[in-house]
Amino acid sequence: MLRTQLAPYKYNFASSSSPLAYLSRYHSSLLVVQRPRVSDFSYKPSASLLHRNHSTMAPPSILIVGCGVAGPILATFLLLSPLPASEKPRITILERSSGPRIQGQGVDIRGAGLTIIRKLGLESTIRAVTTKEEGAMFVDASNRVWAAFGADRSGKVETGTADVEIMRGRLVDIGYRKSKAVSDEIQREGGAGIEYVFGDSADSIEQDDQRVHVRFSKSQETRTFDFVVGADGLHSKTRKLVFGEAADGDRVKRLEMYSAFFSMPSGPTDSTYNR
Ligand SMILES: Cc1cc2nc3c(=O)[nH]c(=O)nc-3n(C[C@H](O)[C@H](O)[C@H](O)COP(=O)(O)OP(=O)(O)OC[C@H]3O[C@@H](n4cnc5c(N)ncnc54)[C@H](O)[C@@H]3O)c2cc1C
Predict the structure, then answer these.
(1) Taking 60 as the threshold, does the pLDDT of residue 39 lie above it?
(2) How far apart are CA 236 and CA 241, in angstroms?
(3) pLDDT per residue as tens digits for the range 159-176
(4) Does residue 61 sit in helix, strand or coil?
(5) Residue 104 CA: which ligand 1 atom is closest?
(6) How many CB atoms lie within 10 A of CB 192?
(7) Which atom of ligand 1 is nearest to the CA of 167?
(8) What's the CA-to-centroid distance between 84 and ligand 1, angstroms?
(9) Is the pTM higher than 0.85?
(10) 140 C-alpha to center of ligand 1: Å?
C-alpha cells in the first residue's frame, strides 16, 4: 500500500510564520502550497490577517487550484477566520475533473495532518472510517511472516503504517463536504463562500503589481484574484506555470520507481495486518 505523510500544506515562502501571515503581508502575490512544517499550523485564523483588498475594499479573492485533499481543507481554514461573513475571503476552487476525485488507496495521517484534522473538528469523523489496519507484515509465498510492525499510536515514531489510515477517496470526500458545509453557512449569512469550478483548469497565470490574472483553459475566460494557491498535487501545473517547466526538475526528484495499487477482497488468511 502506498502511503503518504498527509501533511499537504506548506507555504513555500520561508519567511512567513504562518499561511495567513503570508496572505496578510504580501496581499497581491502568488502563493504555492507544498508540504508543511507542524509549526505552520500553530495559529488561529485572526480577523486582522485576512483583511480586505485595500484597493477595492472588497474581501480578498483567492483561487485554489485542485479539489483534492489540500484544496478544500485550506478553503475551510481560510473561511473559519473570525470575520463577519461579508468580509470573509471569496474563494474559487478550480478542479480539472468533473467532480472531486475519490480514487486512491490508503493514506496515513500523521504529524501536521493530525493537527489539521483536530483543528477542523474532523478527527472523530475520520477515525470512524479509517481502515482499522493494525500493522503490516512481510510474508513469503507460504504466508510465513518474516517481519511485522504495528501501527504507531504515539505519533512519535514513523512506522510503515499509522494509527489514522484512511482511504484517500474518503478523506477527499470528508474534506470536500466540510468545505461545502462551511461555505453554505457563510452564504446563508451573506458571504461569498466557495465557488467550485469543475472540469476546467488554468493555462496561464500572470501577476502584475496588484493582482493575479488566470486564464481558464476550457472557458478561455480570464479571471483576476488577489491570491492563487496551487493545491493540484505532486506534479502541480500551477507550480510549472509560475516557476517554469525547466525549474521543476529541482523540485520533484524522480526515483524512476513505479508501483501500482489496487483494491481486492479480503482472503481467508487476511487479518488486521496488511501483508
Ligand atoms: C486520483 C488520486 C489517487 C491517489 N492515490 C493515492 C494513494 O493511494 N496513496 C497516497 O499516498 N497518495 C495518493 N495520491 C496522492 C495524494 O492524494 C497526494 O499526494 C496528497 O494527498 C496531497 O494532496 P493534494 O491535495 O496536494 O493533491 P491531490 O490529492 O493529488 O489532489 C490534487 C487535485 O488537483 C487536481 N488537479 C491536478 N492538476 C490540475 C490542474 N492543472 N487544474 C485543476 N485541477 C488539477 C487533481 O485532479 C486532484 O483532484 C493520489 C492522488 C490522486 C489525484
Answers:
(1) no
(2) 9
(3) 777 789 999 999 999 999
(4) strand
(5) 5
(6) 19
(7) 8
(8) 32
(9) no
(10) 32
Return d(Cα 113, Cα 122) in angstroms, integer.
11
For 10-274, CATH number? 3.50.50.60
60: its cell numbers: 480578498
Domain map (residue ranges) of the chain: 10-274
- DSSP assigned state of 269: T
| Dihedral angle sign, alpha carbons of residues 243, 245, 246, 247 | positive
With cell 508501483, the residue in question is 259
Which atom of ligand 1 is nearest to 231's Cα? 26
Amino acid occupying residue 126: I
| Shortest-distance Cα residue to atom 4 of ligand 1 | 104
pLDDT of residue 110: 87
- Give me 256's grid cell: 524512476
Q: How far is the CA of 69 from the centre of ligand 1 (A)?
A: 7
Residue type, 117: I
User: For 55-88, how does the pLDDT look when each residue is reduced to its tens digit (9 = 90+)?
Assistant: 667 899 999 999 999 999 999 999 998 999 999 9
242: phi then psi, degrees, rounded to nearest 5: -85, -45
Residue 79's pLDDT is what? 96
